[in-house]
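Pasting as-is:
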Amino acid sequence: MMGRRLRRVLPLAGLVVLFDQLSKIHIDRTFQLHESRPVIENFFHLTYVRNEGAAFGLFADKAFRVPFLVTVALLAVLGIFWYLKQLEEQQKDQQVGLSLVLGGAVGNLTDRLRLGAVIDFLDLHWRGYHWPAFNVADMAICVGVGLLLFGIWRSERRAAKP
């Protein structure tokens, strides 16, 4: 049973990693660090930054950040495989969610191991409000977590029905 789930999860996770890494390589090769180019003026820019910390720059100034963040990412990957093993075969929405989270985690882990930082470049802002820059891996993680939460909600709803 786990083999069938892995055959479902790993290809999508691999596509996330591939698209994430190709987009980051493109940005790294065609932008200068901190260069910004508008896509939609005053709303969406491509801006090349490197995030040395965790989400939103947490731990950016800590000497232990890379080993700590790599360890956390590896533990997250192990947790994803554990959770995948717990799922029932018909919980496909949660399997897709785990695929996206796994791909995103591996994509950002690849940057950390290779560069000691994560390349971010998707930059949303409106008027005085500015969202921290993010990348394809971050988007996959957010959508994946959303699918996981939706799947949990749906499973609980089904279980509550008489």
